[in-house]
Protein backbone atom coordinates (compact mmCIF):
# COMPACT_ATOMS: atom_id res chain seq x y z
CA UNK A 1 0.00 0.00 0.00
CA UNK A 2 2.91 2.29 0.68
CA UNK A 3 3.97 2.21 -3.02
CA UNK A 4 0.56 3.23 -4.39
CA UNK A 5 1.25 6.98 -4.46
CA UNK A 6 4.39 6.46 -6.54
CA UNK A 7 2.38 4.59 -9.14
CA UNK A 8 -0.21 7.35 -9.30
CA UNK A 9 2.49 9.96 -9.80
CA UNK A 10 4.12 7.93 -12.53
CA UNK A 11 0.80 7.53 -14.30
CA UNK A 12 0.21 11.25 -14.15
CA UNK A 13 3.65 11.92 -15.57
CA UNK A 14 2.96 9.48 -18.37
CA UNK A 15 -0.28 11.22 -19.28
CA UNK A 16 1.47 14.59 -19.41
CA UNK A 17 4.29 13.17 -21.47
CA UNK A 18 1.86 11.61 -23.89
CA UNK A 19 0.03 14.93 -24.29
CA UNK A 20 3.27 16.71 -25.09
CA UNK A 21 4.15 14.10 -27.68
CA UNK A 22 0.80 14.61 -29.34
CA UNK A 23 1.30 18.38 -29.46
CA UNK A 24 4.79 18.03 -30.91
CA UNK A 25 3.48 15.61 -33.52
CA UNK A 26 0.75 18.01 -34.56
CA UNK A 27 3.19 20.93 -34.82
CA UNK A 28 5.54 18.81 -36.93
CA UNK A 29 2.70 17.93 -39.28
CA UNK A 30 1.83 21.63 -39.71
CA UNK A 31 5.44 22.51 -40.51
CA UNK A 32 5.72 19.64 -42.99
CA UNK A 33 2.52 20.78 -44.68
CA UNK A 34 3.89 24.29 -45.02
CA UNK A 35 7.14 23.04 -46.47
CA UNK A 36 5.25 20.87 -48.90
CA UNK A 37 3.17 23.81 -50.09
CA UNK A 38 6.28 25.93 -50.64
CA UNK A 39 8.05 23.09 -52.46
CA UNK A 40 5.04 22.77 -54.75
CA UNK A 41 5.25 26.48 -55.73
CA UNK A 42 6.64 27.30 -59.15
CA UNK A 43 9.90 29.31 -59.01
CA UNK A 44 8.25 32.56 -60.10
CA UNK A 45 5.38 32.08 -57.66
CA UNK A 46 7.85 31.30 -54.90
CA UNK A 47 9.74 34.51 -55.74
CA UNK A 48 6.54 36.53 -55.63
CA UNK A 49 5.62 35.04 -52.27
CA UNK A 50 9.02 35.85 -50.78
CA UNK A 51 9.42 39.33 -52.28
CA UNK A 52 5.91 40.78 -52.45
CA UNK A 53 6.15 42.59 -49.15
CA UNK A 54 9.66 43.90 -49.86
CA UNK A 55 8.66 45.16 -53.30
CA UNK A 56 5.52 46.75 -51.93
CA UNK A 57 7.43 48.50 -49.17
CA UNK A 58 9.98 49.92 -51.60
CA UNK A 59 7.30 51.12 -53.98
CA UNK A 60 5.34 52.69 -51.15
CA UNK A 61 8.44 54.56 -50.02
CA UNK A 62 8.76 55.99 -53.51
CA UNK A 63 5.10 56.93 -53.86
CA UNK A 64 4.28 58.19 -50.37
CA UNK A 65 6.69 61.09 -50.08
CA UNK A 66 9.81 59.35 -48.74
CA UNK A 67 11.96 59.90 -51.80
CA UNK A 68 14.01 63.12 -52.10
CA UNK A 69 11.82 66.08 -53.06
CA UNK A 70 12.71 67.55 -56.42
CA UNK A 71 12.34 71.24 -57.19
CA UNK A 72 8.83 72.51 -57.81
CA UNK A 73 9.66 73.43 -61.38
CA UNK A 74 10.85 69.91 -62.16
CA UNK A 75 7.65 68.54 -60.69
CA UNK A 76 5.70 70.90 -62.94
CA UNK A 77 7.64 69.64 -65.96
CA UNK A 78 6.94 66.05 -64.89
CA UNK A 79 3.24 66.89 -64.89
CA UNK A 80 3.56 68.24 -68.43
CA UNK A 81 5.33 65.04 -69.46
CA UNK A 82 2.56 62.95 -67.89
CA UNK A 83 -0.07 64.81 -69.88
CA UNK A 84 1.45 63.63 -73.15
CA UNK A 85 2.45 60.14 -71.98
CA UNK A 86 0.85 56.95 -73.23
CA UNK A 87 1.25 53.39 -71.95
CA UNK A 88 3.03 54.41 -68.77
CA UNK A 89 4.69 51.80 -66.59
CA UNK A 90 5.25 51.87 -62.85
CA UNK A 91 8.80 53.05 -63.54
CA UNK A 92 7.79 55.95 -65.74
CA UNK A 93 4.91 56.86 -63.46
CA UNK A 94 7.38 57.25 -60.63
CA UNK A 95 9.56 59.60 -62.62
CA UNK A 96 11.48 57.42 -65.12
CA UNK A 97 11.16 57.48 -68.90
CA UNK A 98 9.39 54.88 -71.00
CA UNK A 99 11.83 52.42 -72.42
CA UNK A 100 14.53 53.11 -69.86
CA UNK A 101 13.91 49.81 -68.06
CA UNK A 102 10.76 48.56 -66.41
CA UNK A 103 11.96 49.45 -62.93
CA UNK A 104 13.66 52.81 -63.52
CA UNK A 105 12.73 55.41 -60.95
CA UNK A 106 14.07 58.95 -61.29
CA UNK A 107 15.00 60.69 -58.08
CA UNK A 108 16.29 64.19 -58.73
CA UNK A 109 19.26 63.74 -61.07
CA UNK A 110 19.95 60.12 -60.09
CA UNK A 111 18.33 56.96 -61.47
CA UNK A 112 17.92 53.80 -59.43
CA UNK A 113 17.16 50.43 -61.02
CA UNK A 114 14.71 48.30 -59.04
CA UNK A 115 15.14 44.76 -60.38
CA UNK A 116 13.38 41.89 -58.61
CA UNK A 117 15.18 38.82 -59.97
CA UNK A 118 13.48 35.45 -59.58
CA UNK A 119 15.31 32.26 -58.72
CA UNK A 120 14.69 30.97 -62.23
CA UNK A 121 16.44 34.03 -63.68
CA UNK A 122 13.42 35.47 -65.49
CA UNK A 123 13.69 38.86 -63.77
CA UNK A 124 9.89 39.14 -63.72
CA UNK A 125 8.13 40.95 -60.86
CA UNK A 126 4.75 39.43 -60.25
CA UNK A 127 4.18 41.33 -57.02
CA UNK A 128 0.54 42.02 -56.37
CA UNK A 129 1.56 45.21 -54.58
CA UNK A 130 3.43 46.45 -57.66
CA UNK A 131 0.41 45.79 -59.86
CA UNK A 132 -1.81 47.69 -57.46
CA UNK A 133 0.58 50.65 -57.43
CA UNK A 134 0.68 50.70 -61.22
CA UNK A 135 -3.10 50.57 -61.42
CA UNK A 136 -3.43 53.43 -58.95
CA UNK A 137 -0.89 55.53 -60.81
CA UNK A 138 -2.59 54.88 -64.14
CA UNK A 139 -5.82 56.14 -62.60
CA UNK A 140 -4.03 59.27 -61.38
CA UNK A 141 -2.57 59.92 -64.84
CA UNK A 142 -6.00 59.46 -66.41
CA UNK A 143 -7.45 61.94 -63.92
CA UNK A 144 -4.63 64.36 -64.70
CA UNK A 145 -5.30 64.09 -68.42
CA UNK A 146 -8.99 64.72 -67.84
CA UNK A 147 -8.18 67.72 -65.66
CA UNK A 148 -5.85 69.09 -68.33
CA UNK A 149 -8.49 68.61 -71.01
CA UNK A 150 -10.97 70.57 -68.91
CA UNK A 151 -8.40 73.30 -68.31
CA UNK A 152 -7.91 73.66 -72.05
CA UNK A 153 -11.62 74.22 -72.58
CA UNK A 154 -12.79 77.82 -72.88
CA UNK A 155 -16.13 79.23 -71.89
CA UNK A 156 -17.82 80.28 -75.12
CA UNK A 157 -21.20 81.10 -73.60
CA UNK A 158 -22.54 83.97 -75.73
CA UNK A 159 -22.17 87.37 -74.13
CA UNK A 160 -19.95 86.25 -71.24
CA UNK A 161 -16.94 88.48 -70.55
CA UNK A 162 -14.48 89.24 -67.77
CA UNK A 163 -13.78 92.59 -66.12
CA UNK A 164 -10.12 93.33 -65.40
CA UNK A 165 -9.45 94.71 -61.90
CA UNK A 166 -5.95 95.94 -61.09
CA UNK A 167 -5.29 96.83 -57.44
CA UNK A 168 -2.52 99.22 -56.38
CA UNK A 169 -1.46 101.94 -53.99
CA UNK A 170 -0.25 105.44 -54.73
CA UNK A 171 3.22 106.59 -55.77
CA UNK A 172 5.39 106.71 -58.87
CA UNK A 173 6.33 103.02 -58.66
CA UNK A 174 2.85 101.57 -59.17
CA UNK A 175 1.75 104.62 -61.14
CA UNK A 176 3.97 104.10 -64.18
CA UNK A 177 3.40 100.33 -64.12
CA UNK A 178 -0.38 100.67 -64.06
CA UNK A 179 -0.33 103.22 -66.87
CA UNK A 180 1.71 100.87 -69.07
CA UNK A 181 -0.57 97.97 -68.12
CA UNK A 182 -3.75 99.87 -68.99
CA UNK A 183 -2.23 101.12 -72.27
CA UNK A 184 -1.66 97.54 -73.41
CA UNK A 185 -5.03 96.38 -72.09
CA UNK A 186 -6.70 98.96 -74.35
CA UNK A 187 -4.64 98.07 -77.43
CA UNK A 188 -5.18 94.34 -76.90
CA UNK A 189 -8.91 94.74 -76.38
CA UNK A 190 -9.30 96.95 -79.44
CA UNK A 191 -7.60 94.32 -81.59
CA UNK A 192 -9.72 91.59 -80.00
CA UNK A 193 -12.95 93.45 -80.79
CA UNK A 194 -11.79 94.10 -84.35
CA UNK A 195 -11.09 90.42 -84.88
CA UNK A 196 -13.87 88.80 -82.83
CA UNK A 197 -16.57 91.42 -82.54
CA UNK A 198 -18.95 90.86 -79.64
CA UNK A 199 -17.38 87.43 -79.08
CA UNK A 200 -14.29 89.13 -77.65
CA UNK A 201 -14.25 88.11 -73.96
CA UNK A 202 -12.37 91.18 -72.73
CA UNK A 203 -14.77 93.49 -70.92
CA UNK A 204 -14.22 96.62 -68.87
CA UNK A 205 -11.34 97.71 -66.64
CA UNK A 206 -11.08 99.07 -63.10
CA UNK A 207 -8.03 100.44 -61.35
CA UNK A 208 -8.66 99.61 -57.68
CA UNK A 209 -6.79 102.37 -55.85
CA UNK A 210 -6.46 101.62 -52.12
CA UNK A 211 -4.81 104.88 -51.07
CA UNK A 212 -8.12 106.33 -49.88
CA UNK A 213 -7.89 109.43 -52.09
CA UNK A 214 -8.00 110.25 -55.81
CA UNK A 215 -4.82 110.85 -57.79
CA UNK A 216 -3.85 112.47 -61.10
CA UNK A 217 -4.86 109.53 -63.29
CA UNK A 218 -8.57 109.20 -62.55
CA UNK A 219 -9.46 110.51 -66.02
CA UNK A 220 -6.91 108.36 -67.86
CA UNK A 221 -7.85 105.05 -66.21
CA UNK A 222 -11.30 104.02 -64.90
CA UNK A 223 -10.73 104.03 -61.14
CA UNK A 224 -12.46 103.09 -57.90
CA UNK A 225 -10.96 104.50 -54.69
CA UNK A 226 -11.21 102.42 -51.50
CA UNK A 227 -9.80 102.89 -48.02
CA UNK A 228 -6.38 101.69 -46.89
CA UNK A 229 -6.10 99.35 -43.92
CA UNK A 230 -7.36 100.93 -40.69
CA UNK A 231 -4.64 101.80 -38.13
CA UNK A 232 -5.05 98.65 -36.03
CA UNK A 233 -4.67 96.37 -39.05
CA UNK A 234 -1.89 98.51 -40.50
CA UNK A 235 -0.05 97.83 -37.24
CA UNK A 236 -0.54 94.09 -37.82
CA UNK A 237 0.76 94.44 -41.38
CA UNK A 238 3.93 96.07 -40.00
CA UNK A 239 5.02 97.30 -43.41
CA UNK A 240 3.75 94.28 -45.35
CA UNK A 241 1.92 96.40 -47.90
CA UNK A 242 0.47 93.42 -49.75
CA UNK A 243 -2.19 93.10 -47.03
CA UNK A 244 -3.82 96.13 -48.63
CA UNK A 245 -4.81 93.96 -51.59
CA UNK A 246 -7.36 91.58 -50.00
CA UNK A 247 -8.80 94.48 -48.00
CA UNK A 248 -9.25 96.48 -51.21
CA UNK A 249 -10.98 93.59 -52.99
CA UNK A 250 -13.19 92.99 -49.96
CA UNK A 251 -14.40 96.61 -50.18
CA UNK A 252 -14.85 96.35 -53.95
CA UNK A 253 -16.97 93.20 -53.59
CA UNK A 254 -19.15 94.84 -50.94
CA UNK A 255 -19.69 98.13 -52.79
CA UNK A 256 -19.06 97.69 -56.50
CA UNK A 257 -19.53 94.05 -57.50
CA UNK A 258 -23.04 94.67 -58.82
CA UNK A 259 -22.02 97.80 -60.74
CA UNK A 260 -20.16 95.93 -63.50
CA UNK A 261 -22.09 94.20 -66.31
CA UNK A 262 -19.62 91.31 -66.64
CA UNK A 263 -20.17 88.09 -64.69
CA UNK A 264 -16.46 87.34 -64.36
CA UNK A 265 -13.49 89.26 -63.04
CA UNK A 266 -9.80 89.05 -63.90
CA UNK A 267 -7.65 89.97 -60.91
CA UNK A 268 -4.53 91.63 -62.25
CA UNK A 269 -1.55 93.65 -61.06
CA UNK A 270 0.28 96.74 -62.30
CA UNK A 271 3.26 94.73 -63.61
CA UNK A 272 1.15 92.80 -66.13
CA UNK A 273 1.45 93.61 -69.84
CA UNK A 274 -1.02 91.95 -72.21
CA UNK A 275 0.33 90.30 -75.36
CA UNK A 276 -2.85 88.68 -76.66
CA UNK A 277 -6.49 88.71 -75.62
CA UNK A 278 -6.98 85.87 -73.11
CA UNK A 279 -10.07 83.71 -73.62
CA UNK A 280 -12.58 83.14 -70.84
CA UNK A 281 -11.46 79.92 -69.19
CA UNK A 282 -13.52 80.28 -66.01
CA UNK A 283 -17.00 78.83 -65.50
CA UNK A 284 -19.52 79.53 -62.73
CA UNK A 285 -18.14 76.53 -60.83
CA UNK A 286 -14.46 76.62 -61.68
CA UNK A 287 -12.06 79.60 -61.86
CA UNK A 288 -8.76 79.70 -63.75
CA UNK A 289 -5.34 80.77 -62.49
CA UNK A 290 -1.62 80.67 -63.17
CA UNK A 291 0.36 78.02 -61.24
CA UNK A 292 3.28 79.40 -59.20
CA UNK A 293 6.12 76.97 -58.52
CA UNK A 294 6.92 78.61 -55.19
CA UNK A 295 3.44 78.06 -53.72
CA UNK A 296 3.76 74.62 -52.11
CA UNK A 297 0.78 73.64 -49.94
CA UNK A 298 1.99 70.07 -49.36
CA UNK A 299 5.34 71.29 -48.10
CA UNK A 300 3.65 73.49 -45.50
CA UNK A 301 0.78 71.19 -44.56
CA UNK A 302 1.64 71.47 -40.87
CA UNK A 303 1.09 75.24 -41.09
CA UNK A 304 -1.95 75.13 -43.34
CA UNK A 305 -3.63 72.66 -40.97
CA UNK A 306 -3.88 75.47 -38.40
CA UNK A 307 -6.09 77.43 -40.83
CA UNK A 308 -8.05 74.41 -42.06
CA UNK A 309 -10.70 73.63 -39.41
CA UNK A 310 -12.75 71.62 -41.92
CA UNK A 311 -9.87 69.22 -42.46
CA UNK A 312 -9.88 69.66 -46.24
CA UNK A 313 -7.38 67.29 -47.86
CA UNK A 314 -4.11 69.02 -48.68
CA UNK A 315 -4.32 68.02 -52.35
CA UNK A 316 -7.38 70.28 -52.65
CA UNK A 317 -5.24 73.40 -52.12
CA UNK A 318 -4.15 74.89 -55.44
CA UNK A 319 -0.57 76.10 -55.98
CA UNK A 320 -1.72 79.55 -57.03
CA UNK A 321 -2.01 83.12 -55.86
CA UNK A 322 -4.87 85.54 -56.33
CA UNK A 323 -3.45 87.02 -59.52
CA UNK A 324 -3.78 86.37 -62.34
CA UNK A 325 -7.12 84.73 -61.61
CA UNK A 326 -10.35 84.55 -63.62
CA UNK A 327 -13.37 83.86 -61.42
CA UNK A 328 -17.14 84.30 -61.45
CA UNK A 329 -17.95 87.34 -59.36
CA UNK A 330 -20.54 85.49 -57.23
CA UNK A 331 -18.07 82.75 -56.45
CA UNK A 332 -15.48 85.38 -55.60
CA UNK A 333 -17.93 87.09 -53.26
CA UNK A 334 -18.09 83.86 -51.27
CA UNK A 335 -14.30 83.69 -50.90
CA UNK A 336 -13.11 87.25 -50.44
CA UNK A 337 -13.94 87.69 -46.72
CA UNK A 338 -12.13 84.47 -45.88
CA UNK A 339 -9.17 85.56 -47.99
CA UNK A 340 -8.90 88.82 -46.08
CA UNK A 341 -9.34 87.24 -42.64
CA UNK A 342 -6.79 84.54 -43.40
CA UNK A 343 -4.29 87.15 -44.61
CA UNK A 344 -4.49 88.83 -41.20
CA UNK A 345 -4.38 85.53 -39.29
CA UNK A 346 -1.34 84.29 -41.20
CA UNK A 347 0.49 87.56 -40.60
CA UNK A 348 -0.17 87.15 -36.86
CA UNK A 349 1.15 83.58 -36.84
CA UNK A 350 4.95 83.80 -36.33
CA UNK A 351 5.80 80.57 -38.13
CA UNK A 352 3.45 81.19 -41.05
CA UNK A 353 4.67 84.79 -41.33
CA UNK A 354 8.27 83.61 -41.53
CA UNK A 355 7.84 80.57 -43.77
CA UNK A 356 5.36 82.09 -46.25
CA UNK A 357 7.15 85.45 -46.31
CA UNK A 358 5.94 88.05 -48.76
CA UNK A 359 3.82 85.47 -50.63
CA UNK A 360 1.73 84.74 -47.53
CA UNK A 361 -1.23 86.63 -48.95
CA UNK A 362 -1.08 84.29 -51.97
CA UNK A 363 -1.24 81.32 -49.61
CA UNK A 364 -4.19 83.00 -47.88
CA UNK A 365 -6.12 83.05 -51.17
CA UNK A 366 -5.34 79.39 -51.88
CA UNK A 367 -6.47 78.38 -48.39
CA UNK A 368 -9.62 80.51 -48.64
CA UNK A 369 -10.55 78.95 -51.97
CA UNK A 370 -10.21 75.47 -50.48
CA UNK A 371 -12.05 76.14 -47.22
CA UNK A 372 -14.49 79.07 -47.51
CA UNK A 373 -17.40 77.33 -49.25
CA UNK A 374 -19.16 73.99 -48.82
CA UNK A 375 -16.71 72.32 -51.20
CA UNK A 376 -13.17 73.33 -52.23
CA UNK A 377 -13.01 75.73 -55.16
CA UNK A 378 -10.50 74.18 -57.56
CA UNK A 379 -8.86 76.37 -60.19
CA UNK A 380 -7.92 75.35 -63.68
CA UNK A 381 -4.18 76.02 -63.88
CA UNK A 382 -3.27 77.65 -67.18
CA UNK A 383 0.46 77.88 -67.94
CA UNK A 384 -0.03 80.14 -70.93
CA UNK A 385 -1.71 82.88 -68.91
CA UNK A 386 1.65 84.59 -68.47
CA UNK A 387 5.40 84.63 -69.00
CA UNK A 388 7.93 85.66 -66.37
CA UNK A 389 11.11 86.83 -68.09
CA UNK A 390 14.03 86.34 -68.07
CA UNK A 391 13.22 82.77 -67.04
CA UNK A 392 10.79 82.51 -69.94
CA UNK A 393 12.77 83.30 -73.06
CA UNK A 394 10.23 82.95 -75.86
CA UNK A 395 6.69 84.22 -76.29
CA UNK A 396 5.35 80.73 -75.72
CA UNK A 397 4.61 79.10 -72.39
CA UNK A 398 6.31 75.92 -71.19
CA UNK A 399 3.54 73.87 -72.81
CA UNK A 400 4.33 75.37 -76.22
CA UNK A 401 1.23 77.55 -76.43
CA UNK A 402 1.21 81.29 -77.10
CA UNK A 403 1.33 83.28 -73.88
CA UNK A 404 -1.22 86.01 -73.14
CA UNK A 405 0.67 88.42 -70.91
CA UNK A 406 4.06 89.23 -69.40
CA UNK A 407 4.55 89.48 -65.64
CA UNK A 408 7.71 91.55 -65.19
CA UNK A 409 8.53 90.72 -61.58
CA UNK A 410 12.14 89.52 -62.02
CA UNK A 411 15.36 91.42 -62.68
CA UNK A 412 17.00 90.89 -66.07
CA UNK A 413 20.76 90.88 -66.67
CA UNK A 414 22.80 90.25 -69.83
CA UNK A 415 26.47 90.70 -70.67
CA UNK A 416 27.69 92.76 -73.67
CA UNK A 417 27.37 89.72 -75.91
CA UNK A 418 23.73 89.27 -74.92
CA UNK A 419 24.30 86.24 -72.70
CA UNK A 420 22.04 85.85 -69.67
CA UNK A 421 23.97 86.37 -66.40
CA UNK A 422 21.77 85.08 -63.55
CA UNK A 423 23.17 85.94 -60.15
CA UNK A 424 25.35 88.70 -61.55
CA UNK A 425 24.53 92.27 -62.58
CA UNK A 426 24.93 92.46 -66.32
CA UNK A 427 26.24 95.19 -68.58
CA UNK A 428 22.60 95.47 -69.64
CA UNK A 429 20.16 95.49 -66.73
CA UNK A 430 16.43 95.94 -66.17
CA UNK A 431 14.51 95.70 -62.90
CA UNK A 432 11.24 97.48 -62.17
CA UNK A 433 12.43 98.14 -58.58
CA UNK A 434 15.07 100.54 -59.90
CA UNK A 435 12.21 102.88 -60.76
CA UNK A 436 10.54 103.27 -57.39
CA UNK A 437 10.63 107.06 -57.21
CA UNK A 438 10.87 107.99 -60.89
CA UNK A 439 9.46 106.65 -64.14
CA UNK A 440 11.95 104.66 -66.25
CA UNK A 441 13.37 106.82 -69.06
CA UNK A 442 11.76 106.79 -72.46
CA UNK A 443 13.59 104.74 -75.09
CA UNK A 444 15.18 102.50 -72.50
CA UNK A 445 18.08 100.68 -74.22
CA UNK A 446 17.17 97.35 -75.75
CA UNK A 447 19.16 94.25 -74.71
CA UNK A 448 22.48 93.67 -76.50
CA UNK A 449 22.29 92.46 -80.08
CA UNK A 450 23.24 88.90 -79.16
CA UNK A 451 20.33 88.51 -76.73
CA UNK A 452 17.90 85.86 -77.94
CA UNK A 453 15.34 86.31 -75.14
CA UNK A 454 12.23 87.40 -77.02
CA UNK A 455 10.20 87.85 -73.84
CA UNK A 456 12.66 90.41 -72.43
CA UNK A 457 12.94 92.25 -75.74
CA UNK A 458 9.17 92.36 -76.12
CA UNK A 459 8.75 93.68 -72.58
CA UNK A 460 11.21 96.56 -73.07
CA UNK A 461 9.73 97.36 -76.48
CA UNK A 462 6.22 97.58 -75.02
CA UNK A 463 7.26 99.73 -72.08
CA UNK A 464 9.09 102.06 -74.47
CA UNK A 465 6.06 102.36 -76.74
CA UNK A 466 3.79 103.29 -73.85
CA UNK A 467 6.35 105.72 -72.42
CA UNK A 468 6.57 107.58 -75.72
CA UNK A 469 2.78 107.87 -76.06
CA UNK A 470 1.47 108.51 -72.54
CA UNK A 471 1.25 112.17 -71.50
CA UNK A 472 3.43 113.55 -68.71
CA UNK A 473 6.01 110.78 -68.87
CA UNK A 474 8.99 113.00 -69.67
CA UNK A 475 8.38 115.20 -66.62
CA UNK A 476 8.43 112.18 -64.34
CA UNK A 477 11.19 110.03 -65.79
CA UNK A 478 14.55 109.42 -64.14
CA UNK A 479 18.03 109.31 -65.61
CA UNK A 480 19.61 106.05 -66.64
CA UNK A 481 22.28 105.30 -64.00
CA UNK A 482 25.11 102.79 -64.15
CA UNK A 483 24.14 99.20 -63.31
CA UNK A 484 26.20 99.34 -60.11
CA UNK A 485 24.27 102.35 -58.87
CA UNK A 486 21.00 100.68 -59.78
CA UNK A 487 21.98 97.54 -57.92
CA UNK A 488 22.99 99.40 -54.77
CA UNK A 489 19.67 101.18 -54.58
CA UNK A 490 17.72 98.02 -55.30
CA UNK A 491 19.49 96.04 -52.60
CA UNK A 492 18.98 98.82 -50.08
CA UNK A 493 15.30 99.12 -50.95
CA UNK A 494 14.84 95.35 -50.77
CA UNK A 495 16.55 95.25 -47.37
CA UNK A 496 14.23 97.97 -46.11
CA UNK A 497 11.18 96.05 -47.31
CA UNK A 498 12.44 92.93 -45.59
CA UNK A 499 12.95 94.76 -42.32
CA UNK A 500 9.52 96.37 -42.54
CA UNK A 501 7.85 93.05 -43.21
CA UNK A 502 9.78 91.51 -40.33
CA UNK A 503 10.57 88.55 -42.46
CA UNK A 504 13.60 86.32 -43.02
CA UNK A 505 14.06 84.94 -46.53
CA UNK A 506 15.35 81.58 -45.28
CA UNK A 507 13.58 78.66 -46.87
CA UNK A 508 12.21 80.66 -49.78
CA UNK A 509 14.83 79.49 -52.25
CA UNK A 510 16.13 82.98 -53.01
CA UNK A 511 15.95 86.56 -52.04
CA UNK A 512 15.12 88.33 -55.24
CA UNK A 513 16.22 89.31 -58.68
CA UNK A 514 19.22 88.08 -60.61
CA UNK A 515 21.62 90.58 -59.08
CA UNK A 516 20.91 89.58 -55.51
CA UNK A 517 22.36 86.83 -53.36
CA UNK A 518 20.87 83.70 -51.82
CA UNK A 519 20.47 81.50 -54.89
CA UNK A 520 22.74 79.67 -57.30
CA UNK A 521 23.36 81.00 -60.83
CA UNK A 522 21.05 79.27 -63.26
CA UNK A 523 18.45 78.40 -60.63
CA UNK A 524 15.11 80.14 -60.99
CA UNK A 525 14.61 82.20 -57.81
CA UNK A 526 11.64 83.43 -55.87
CA UNK A 527 11.03 87.03 -56.99
CA UNK A 528 11.81 89.89 -54.64
CA UNK A 529 9.10 91.77 -52.78
CA UNK A 530 6.59 93.55 -55.06
Automatic annotation (TrEMBL):
GO terms for molecular function: glycosyltransferase activity. The keyword Methyltransferase does not apply. One of its GO terms (cellular component) is membrane. Keywords: Glycosyltransferase, Membrane, Transferase, Transmembrane, Transmembrane helix. It is found in: Membrane. Pfam families: HPAT. Signal peptide: none annotated. This is Hydroxyproline O-arabinosyltransferase-like domain-containing protein. It comes from Chlorella sorokiniana.
Amino acid sequence: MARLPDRAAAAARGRRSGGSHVKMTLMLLVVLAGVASIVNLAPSALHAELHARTAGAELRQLTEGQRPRTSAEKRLQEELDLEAADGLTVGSLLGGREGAGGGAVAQGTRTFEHTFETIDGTGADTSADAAEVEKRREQEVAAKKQDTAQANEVNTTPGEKYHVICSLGSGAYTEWQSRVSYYWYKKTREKCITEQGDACPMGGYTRLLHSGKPDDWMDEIPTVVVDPLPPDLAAVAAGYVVLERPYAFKQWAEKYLDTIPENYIWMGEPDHVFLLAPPLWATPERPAAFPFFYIEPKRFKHIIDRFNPKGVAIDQFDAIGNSPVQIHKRQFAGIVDKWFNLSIAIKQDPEADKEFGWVQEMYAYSIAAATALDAPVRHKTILEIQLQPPWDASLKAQNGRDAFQIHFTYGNDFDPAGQFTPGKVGAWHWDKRDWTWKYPPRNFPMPPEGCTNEAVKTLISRINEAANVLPGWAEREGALPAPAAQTTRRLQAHARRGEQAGRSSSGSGSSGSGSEVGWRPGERPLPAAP
